[in-house]
Amino acid sequence: MQHTSPLAALRSLLKERELDGMLIPRADAHQSEYCAPFDAKLEFISGFDGSAGLALILADRALLFVDGRYQVQAHQQVNLSEFEIHHLHDEPIHLWMRENLPSGQRIAFEPMLIVNNQYEQLRTSGCDLVAVNDDPINKIWTERPAAPRGAIHPMPVEISGESTASKCARVAEALTREGVDYLALTLPDNIAWLLNVRGSDIAMSPVPLSFALIKNDGAVEWFVDEAKLQQLDSGLLDSLKTHSADAFLPRCKQLAAGKRFLLDGDNTPVAVRFAVEQGGGEIEWLADPVTLMKANKNSVELEGYRSSHVEDGAAWVNFLAWLSHEVPLREAAGNPITELEAQEKQLTFRQQCENFWEQSFGTISAAASNAAMCHYHSAPETNFAITSKEFYLNDSGGQYYNGTTDATRTLNFGQLDGQRRLHYTAVLKGFLSLISLQFPQGTQGHQLDAFARRPLWELGLDYDHGTGHGVGHCLLIHENPHRMAKKVNPWPMLPGNVLTIEPGYYLAGSHGIRIENQVEVVASRPGFCKFASLTLIPIDLSAVDLSLLSEQDIAWLDDYHQQVRETLSPLVSSDARPWLIEATAPVRAQRA
Amino acid sequence: MQHTSPLAALRSLLKERELDGMLIPRADAHQSEYCAPFDAKLEFISGFDGSAGLALILADRALLFVDGRYQVQAHQQVNLSEFEIHHLHDEPIHLWMRENLPSGQRIAFEPMLIVNNQYEQLRTSGCDLVAVNDDPINKIWTERPAAPRGAIHPMPVEISGESTASKCARVAEALTREGVDYLALTLPDNIAWLLNVRGSDIAMSPVPLSFALIKNDGAVEWFVDEAKLQQLDSGLLDSLKTHSADAFLPRCKQLAAGKRFLLDGDNTPVAVRFAVEQGGGEIEWLADPVTLMKANKNSVELEGYRSSHVEDGAAWVNFLAWLSHEVPLREAAGNPITELEAQEKQLTFRQQCENFWEQSFGTISAAASNAAMCHYHSAPETNFAITSKEFYLNDSGGQYYNGTTDATRTLNFGQLDGQRRLHYTAVLKGFLSLISLQFPQGTQGHQLDAFARRPLWELGLDYDHGTGHGVGHCLLIHENPHRMAKKVNPWPMLPGNVLTIEPGYYLAGSHGIRIENQVEVVASRPGFCKFASLTLIPIDLSAVDLSLLSEQDIAWLDDYHQQVRETLSPLVSSDARPWLIEATAPVRAQRA
Fold it and tell me: Where do the Creatinase N-terminal domain residues begin and end (chains A, B) (predicted)?
């Protein structure tokens, strides 16, 4: 029998196994934001390649659940005669299943791809969830890319600021305090932080895919493909026990009898729970203590961030000076600079930095209406010209050996209309309101988010994304647990946390604006904190209605630009220096 | 045997019954904020009369748990040789029990006084919780006041805006939607709203203590002391079945077999759960739908609020004009006005209002350092003089036949020092920042709270209370579920909600400042809301550093004062009119 599509092949296999359907999430076993091609099962079955989604394949229907960001993309990428598109949040899949499927239907899922809290929610669907360890997709995906085997590098303690032994001792202490024997680690950045290593399994994501167990005496077992370990010195490898990644679940089961495991329900595959339970262990569901330890950066890490931002700032200035010079000339010559050309040029400037390693995420280089799509990435077929008539938005960053950067600037090279100036001014005012705030130590992100939105709210406008996210130290660009957004985030903000501040405004089909600095939380008055900018890049004021800025806004801008100018002047090219001086000129003088 | 104290008597009874201890909460069966003397069991046993607290009486120790507000008061009121004082939040009682008591200790509690969620938390203590229906306190409290029997009055539909039948139909629809048979109502304000009645069991709390059951067909059974019903017409009484209050639990048990009950775990006594479970019923734990229906005021209720605020505003102006005139004269004469004299005078002005019924809560009339205690109430022994050298804070309100008011003004009658002016200006700026906000419909209170705090945060200061609470319509002064505070409040704010905005600042031993308006949420731009002030009382600007106000601050103040002046001028006494004109003069002119 010949199958014409992966979907038909899968249905046939499900039928053989007497399964009524199967859940296929966009996920790997590590809940990675960016997945390796090897793990792109959802794309294989549906064609949809967004960063979040979940398919439910039934005998006679196939449903793809994606969030608001991906509705348009899903409709473009998916064969709509095969798939219905549903909204992941407005119509949660467990409720859809409860309302639309006869109870007791046998629905398969791969338990390494579904985390415990998701599983518990799916259990309320009334269906019979069947964990399949021999995922049928593995059988039908004949052209599947190989599993990644990126080399793992050591992260010197001179850069991480704390030895693996010290980190393990602190984790062991936390486990003892909680009365548990083992912590199972499945998040690659938590493992990378703990073991002072960095990986290369996924482009622009310097974390190794692996698993680990740490005992309450600090002993570590690391479950990782041996091929990845060639560049590690024996110091680390002698200090722990290594196993193949495949040995992780069996080992959990083997160790479990009579033991208590700390598992984080938000990110631990439910397969780990099953293994511990089958082995006779108990589970304590708690937030992984490593997540918070990692977010509280030490002074060496903070110094690394600051240093990498100086290098990155100089590369930005060289790029922006070049762009400001070239855009009008090339436009006049009828051969305008494009989004792709700009991002390539920007990369060459970053590559001139001594400590630059790779980009920290895919650059968003977006002109005019392309910038209205928050998650746009340029491609030859969408590659707009950068002109004096429209905003150009650039959101990019670098992994440096000692730190990670992430910044956005929206640029004006000509005379924009009143509406665009009003929107840009509102975004800037929101940015300034939040970044200049003093707040009680321990304040939570959702308490501060609205400061960045208020000037837009005054116009009856808003933006549909968070205001800021944590940034890993030479780790993931979106690091948990801190976040400033409308959604409640229970984690207290303390000195040493590193986040972004990035309000924006997007008018579909017209323009997009975002201004983003990376900041560290620093102590100020007793019991209070402030944000200190790590990002050192001039903020374009040419599209601002200066009459709408407050004295406090202007004081912040002038102080910031003075710091940018004084820090970067000696480091930028001589071509760029005059542009830097002009771009950082005090506003107070201009407005007076 | 003679007992020297209630505590000894209680211990003896507990011993007889083989109980190791007993929990005594400051609570009645309705989770009332203000309890009748009949329900003051905690005060009887401990001497502590604050509005929140919980005692644990053991054979050899007695512990009183109170929150931060009441630490000082508890130490003053309680015999410290008998009771240890603990912190209700820093050291939750279930954790104290878990850590300090051998597991399996038999700890008694009265199940009408403990709500389900509290019970579930106490269950994690490791103790054996023993529900006692014949509370030993009832035996030893020989001088116990009588249970309240306040008359219940009808609330005309011309004032409530919706008939009982219509409200019951809406509740029935909600119950049907949730697939439940019954809703058990134990909150007095929810019952008062549903049945369009008001009560008089507790001073300044116009709600009748009673219970009710509503079925998913809209039929109501009301469990209420018959003595309270004399003033009700037969229309209401014929439309429902009445029982004595004592019949509530037996009836729940009797009806339960095969039925589903909706109970709100936050406020339903666990005794109701026991009754339903014993009767063979099932429970759906959900927020009581009446709580939200009641918070979304209809247009008649809103019109009533507005009208009552006009009356209340005129009474305030008459009072403030009198106070402003008298304070310096009486101070100069060596016979200054006191806090108690001021609040008595204020009451006489309110009593002149046509629709005034009673005070909506105990007035806070506090001069100088007395105002630094948020919950201060004047008494002869603390009764400070009101002078030109210190702030005077007045937080008061009225129950009118058509609405409820709650406002605070802090007043300056002389020349205050720079620190007091700075603090007052910061509180005012926080107040203005929040009250002038436009925000997306459905925004939650915790997202907005920080706007009221920011000017204080800039000085490294803060206040330790919420920023705003819901206000009932001729019901409770603190109405659930809406609240603006640091604590997460999940309820979306929508047009028709009525709240307060009341930032403050308190420096112990020195001064206290609070500025409070009651507001309604109104629709503005598409998808957005604003606050519209219900309160119409001039805000004292004599202690403000005007140079610190923004243009937006001044525009709001001038608009507000114009509205106050134009609305109240015709209504205030001729003595007060010149003061009103001066107190509402535009700032713009003064600053220019």
Answer: 7-127
DSSP state at residue B247 = G
Q: How far is A554 from chain B (nearest CA, A)?
A: 14
Which tens digit of pLDDT belongs to each residue from A34-49?
999 999 999 999 999 9
Residue A1 has pLDDT above 50, yes or no: no
Q: What is the pTM of this model?
A: 0.94
Which residue, A425, A367, A427, A423, is CA-closest to A391?
A367
Please give the average per-residue pLDDT across B137-159, as a whole number. Answer: 94
What residue ranges in B253-373 does DSSP mark as E strands? 260-263, 282-285, 356-359, 364-367
DSSP annotation of B19: -
Contact B154, B184 (CB under 8 A): no
State phi, psi for B191 to the nearest 5 degrees.
-70, -45
Is some CB atom of chain B closer than 8 A to the CB atom of A451? yes
Give the model confidence (pLDDT) of B196-251 as tens digits: 999 999 999 999 999 999 999 999 999 999 999 999 988 899 999 999 999 999 99
CA atoms of B538 and B317, how far apart (whole Å): 8
User: For chain A, give me the number of helices (H) and strands (E)?
Assistant: 20, 28
Distance from CA of B489 to the nearest CA of A (A): 10
Indicate the residue of A449, A454, A528 with minimum beta-carbon distance to B457: A528
User: Which residue in the block uniquely carries the two structure tokens 């203005």?
Assistant: B432
Amino acid A496 reads G
Residue B534 CA: distances (Å) to CA of A93, B487, B496, B523: 44, 25, 12, 15
Q: Hey, what domains does chain B have and what are their CATH numbers? A: 6-140 (3.40.350.10), 153-294 (3.40.350.10), 299-591 (3.90.230.10)
Nearest chain A residue (CA) to B489: A488
A556 CB near a chain B CB, below 8 Å? no
Cite the DSSP H helix spans in A179-268: 188-195, 234-238, 248-255
Q: Report the run of H or E that residue A165 belongs to, with start and end.
A: helix A164-178
Q: Which two tokens stand for residue A59?
A: 């005998």
Number of helices (H), then strands (E), belonging to chain B: the values are: 20, 28
Size of interface A-B (CB pairs under 8 A): 54
Which of A437, A443, A457 lies nearest to residue B438, judging by beta carbons?
A457
Paired with B129 in beta bridges are: B107
